[in-house]
Amino acid sequence: MTHQFPESLIESIKSKECTLFIGSGISTWSGAPSWYKLLLSYSKFLEQKGICNDKEKDEILNVINKGDLLIAASYCKSLSTDADFSEFIKEEFFDRNLKSHKIHELIISLGSDCYITTNYDSLIENSYQEFRNGLMLRRVNNDQPIEQASIQKHSSSKFIFKPHGDMHNVDSIILTQEDYRRVRYNMESTIDTLKHLLIQRPILYLGFGLTDPTFILIKDFIAETYKGGNRQHFAIMPDVTDLEKKFWHKNYGISLISYATIQDSEQKHGNLLVLLEELNKKLIDKKETTDFKLSNSSKLALLRYCDTLLYSFQSKNINLFNLDGIISNPNTKSKEQHRQKISSIKQVFHTYNKLIILGEPGSGKSTSLEYFSSQIALKSKDVIDDDFSEHSIPIFIQCKEYKGSLFDLISSSLPITVDKEITLKNGLYTIIIDAVNEIPKEYHETKYFEQDLKDFIEKYPKNKLHVSTRSLNYVSFLDFPVFEIKRLNHDFVKKTLEEQQYNLDTVSNRFLNYLSSPFFFKLFLDYSSNIDLNKITPKLLITKYFLSVNESIQNDYGIKIDVLDLFSSIGYKLTNSGEINIDPVHLKKKIESSGFKNNEIFNILISKKFLLPDGEGKIGFVHQTILEFLSAFHLKKLYSKDETVLDEKIIDSRWDETIMLFVSLLNESNAKGVIEKIVEKDIFYAYSIYDFASYKNISLKHILIEQLLMRLNNSKITHRKKYRLGWLIRNIISDKKYLKSIIKFLEDDVIGPEVAIFIAKANHKESLPKIIECLFKNGNSFPSGYAKAIIEFNDDSVIDSLLTSINKIDEIDSNELLIDNISTILNHFESDLYVPQILKALESDKVKDKIIAVKLLEGNRSSEVIHVFSNLLDESNDDVKKEVIYSLQGRFWPIEKEIISTQEIIDKSFKNLGNNNIGSYFSSYLKDLKSDSVIERAYQLVSTTQNSLLKINLANIIIDKYHELSIKIILEHLTNFKEEYHSALHQCLFLNISDYSIEIIPLVNKTNQIRNRFIIESFSNESDEISDFINYETCLFLFKSWENKIQENNLNEEDVFYWHYSIPRFLSLCSKHMKTLLLNKLNNKDYSNKYQLLSIINHFELKKQDFTEQTINWLFDKMTKEKDDYNNFATTIIGSIGDEEFAEKKLKPLLDSENAVLRNNAYIAIEKIEGSINKRLIIK
After folding, report:
1. Would you call 72 exposed, middle or buried from its count of C-beta atoms within 10 A (0-12, 13-18, 19+)?
2. What domain range includes position 405?
3. Which of 665, 726, 759, 817 has the most CB atoms less than 10 A away?
4. How far apart are CA 977 and CA 973, in angstroms?
5. Residue 507 and residue 560: Cα distance in Å, rounded?
6. Cβ–Cβ contacts within 10 Å for residue 90, how many?
7. Cα 89–Cα 90–Cα 94 angle in degrees, nearest 5
8. Are strands 611-613 and 619-621 parallel, antiparallel or unpaired?
9. What whole-number distance in Å separates Cα of residue 1096 and Cα of residue 1083?
């Protein structure tokens, strides 16, 4: 007979992830008992051993004959001792000497390297070895959580997973309902592994019947992991009806393939052999495709991969918090860099293709990244088709698993079927590299990981890449935008506590500061019952966590244990070696040496999620902060015996978090001694420890302040060091007795703004006029500390002074941020105190006065101001209207931006869209409204207008809803670029231009210089490599043009920015074409543009070997040069390529130089080197 096989079955079996799930029906071909016969044999065994009487035996047989096999198994096992059961299993499986059958050869011939079986015997693994020329499957049993974690990886192969146990380990065998409950509640890793495999792989079930007890046991897991959709699960079963096929496909996602049994025959299931033979032949006949596009099996594998990521995250039931942060782009040269750009973590994940996520321990970095990964998977899992979009498949990797190859680590995360090289080359992935600070020590200190990541980015530039870290020191070599996660908002914490029925009447800000860390907030919600809120500290919360683990184990298993004391030495060992995970052997030895049964406690701690297998054969603790607390606990023990144990750790920044926790464990006297020792080396770190401590010692605070003042009064203090000390002034000095010592720095260009804030908090009103004077002199950065100080005084008498002074401003552009600062100050007072005076200025005939007045009213949401703004949109002057729409948009308000709109303003905005000068600003305003009615209105207009400029502006408004149409319009007009399109196209593209590199970059050529300039300026703040989209000849043309232009001395301001910043930045994105050429020029001592060349080379991935000794010496000379047009790139390069010896011998002596610029640059370079080696080299 001929069986029909669905094409999807053939595709699934041929995929490398295909997993065969083998039931007991297959083993019966070799003489192994079926479940029914096994229980009959068990009852007979009990009778022969005299363990059960006739009545009990008859009762058991009656239950078996009724078909209640699970109940019968429970009855049998309840009568047996462990020894009896072991003897019975030996007789049934070992003594039978089971041999492979033809059916095993047919199954192995299907080609799968992955198996799951509920059978106890070894027939599958033995057959695999027999029919695969000696190859062996790795046996993974239900009592092996470490091995189970490794087969959860999509790339795992050549294994057989035994969730119901193995005859070689009788204690692991699952036979009864009670055994099943034991797996469900005490061996969670087994359930988790089974669910992962069911989700992530195509499955073919063989040897089961729909009523088999084993199939009944696992069908719940099948149901739990089926969420609908196209699942590649198939089951070959006897005598299946059409109704059964429909039922199982609808409710379990399993396609049933039936064969007919042969009644009254010894070979009742003989047709199964026939079916498997036909299936093998079908697989051989199936021709392989040579198409370079992803095969259908690869697409299905990625679908399952996305399902697994989503399930993995959802199954953790993680508390998610809405996190905000500050985004800064190190490449940005516009005034925007001075503004605090506050964004949600969700927004930056979607906006930036390259990004560093920076956050302190417990800030929610990993959780947020894992959530983001799951959301990409959710979006992609149902839409994977022939047209894969870039960045549509997430890859989430943890740096603690790094073993020397980023490519290998990423590959191991993906299904075997998928061609990693092709998909990486085509930018299919959003790659999330979590916790770079957890990279094993040897890879970080040797800069091996740094070079590996640089090479990876250069080879596969099209992929989206997000990197998280505790400190920028670990990623100082990356030129990416940085998103620094803020702590949880105090109002959010309060609201959550109120919902939990906590009394907040006496809660301090210090307590709220502790709980603003997501990690500690979660600990608080889990473990803070019956504790005085004002006594809660990080130390107490972590200690509570450890106690809860102890109590849980004692309550569930009757085992008394102290996990903190037991594993503290392990934590210390890991921290000292710069590792996160450890070989389980060491943990088991520690457990055994403490008098416990190592496997029992080991598996319990995994089930309690205290220990986490990493999938690479190692194991770690639940969170890095928990590891560090263990380490701190052991360090306290060592410190009590020998205080010098701390000396080498103080200079090793890898110990920073551990030492902070260590100090919190000490009594006040010892803590004070440790901080006094640290402050001599690093005042910033000493303050962090002081601030984290569970108590505030006044004398210690005074020591910190005296050290701060000593450093400020050092005549050779560097600009960089002074800048950092300014932050300490604001945070640590509050006592008025220091006013005299600090007020002399009020006019200092670097720390003056911070001094002003201290003076305001001290309410020294005599200084207010001087602070206002300083604001007008040095307030052209936003937000200014001088402005914050004036707000702190809350004295409305300053209004007249501010408005009088601002009227004296002659030129707006150079004072724009100063005006914004004054606007911020004014908005802290009642409107009637300042709005009338400003409205009078709007009656002026001078455009300058009107623009300043509008800027000063920005952020004011009174109906009077909104009405005035609406009328101003009828002005004839475009500059005034542009400023009005900016103010209505609230563009420069960093927190809770609220766009002001009325129907009248919307109508006037549409009317201005065709304005050649300012239409793009109105387009941006209307787009930010995110109004359906506005979008639809724009959509109707875009299909009818013939005005190109208007069409571009309308395309910008509709881009989120009508993306394809919008991009088509934008690219058409960019291809046929005209100067008048500049502003409109810029508004459309400036936030996401790198998404269209493949379409836009090839438009750069040797002939169209106007279009070239627009594109190059638009890419000047990007960081993605673009060499794949531009040819070498064009790059060389741009470089030669640059060489000629930078020699000219009569460039206007815009040309200076273009030739000295935009072109170098653009060329730096073409490193594949330009790096070797430009390094050769730099190393040529006769090349005339060497210094200017640094503006390009500075952005390349560099190492010391790239430079000759002569060039390095030349770079040292250039460190003394100050340039106003761009940064001292020589300093940056020296810091990037240096090492500890380099810093000690070459740079540290420069800190005593009489040349202030040289001192400052040496300090900056040493800081960069410190970051790369995680070691303190200089006093801070």
Report:
1. buried
2. 296-486
3. 759
4. 6
5. 36
6. 13
7. 115
8. antiparallel
9. 14
Residues 444 and 324 in one domain: yes
Residue 386 lies in a domain: yes
- Output the domain CATH number for residue 418: 3.40.50.300
E strand or H helix that includes residue 203? strand 203-206
Within a domain: 244: yes
Q: Does one domain contain both 108 and 200?
A: yes
Q: How many residues does this entry show for the chain?
A: 1180
Q: pTM score, two decimals?
A: 0.79
Phi, psi of 1107 (to 5 degrees): -120, 145
Which amino acid is it at 897? K
Phi, psi of 628 (to 5 degrees): -65, -35
User: For every residue of 111-156, which 3-state class applies, written as one string?
Assistant: CCCEEEECCCCCHHHHHHHHHCCCCCCEEEECCCHHHHHHHCCCCC
Q: Which residue is it, tokens 């699952």?
A: 174
E-assigned strand segments in 1012-1054: none
Integer angstrom CA distances of residue 1048 from 264, 1014, 1041, 1044, 1124: 101, 21, 12, 8, 17
| The residue type at 262 | I
Phi-psi label, residue 901: left if phi above 0, alpha if psi -120 to 50, beta otherwise:
beta
Identify whether residues 379 and 452 lie together within a single domain: yes
Domain boundary residue, one of 285, 315, 349? 285
- As averages over each run of 10 residues, the pLDDT of the chain (1180 residues) reads 82 88 92 89 91 90 89 92 91 86 93 93 93 90 90 90 92 88 78 88 88 72 72 89 91 90 79 92 65 70 85 76 74 39 77 86 85 87 62 90 90 88 90 90 84 88 90 82 84 80 68 79 79 78 92 90 95 90 90 84 88 85 92 95 92 90 90 90 89 73 90 88 87 86 91 92 92 88 89 92 88 87 91 90 88 88 90 91 88 57 93 92 92 94 93 93 91 92 87 79 92 88 82 94 88 88 92 93 92 90 90 84 57 88 88 85 88 82
Return d(Cα 52, Cα 572) in angstroms, integer: 55
User: What are the residues whose beta carbons fall under 8 Å from the beta carbon of 517, sequence distance 6 or more?
Assistant: 360, 361, 362, 363, 487, 488, 538
Cα 491 from Cα 488, distance rounded (Å)? 9
**Could you tell me if residue 418 is inside a domain?**
yes
Beta strands in 507-644 (DSSP E): 611-613, 619-621
| Tokens read off for 939 | 């959509």
Q: Are residues 309 and 337 in the same domain?
A: yes
Q: State whether 22 and 74 are in the same domain.
A: no
3-state secondary structure of 362: coil
Same domain, 425 and 569: no
Diameter over CA atoms, the chain: 114
Query: At a CB cut-off of 8 Å and minimum separation 6, what does 526 contact?
Result: 545, 548
Residue that has been written with the tokens 């492979």 in this structure: 100
Same domain, 470 and 497: no
Smallest CA-to-CA distance from 952 within 1014, 1019, 890 is with: 1014
Contact 700, 690 (CB under 8 A): yes
Peptide bond into 213 cis (omega under 30): no
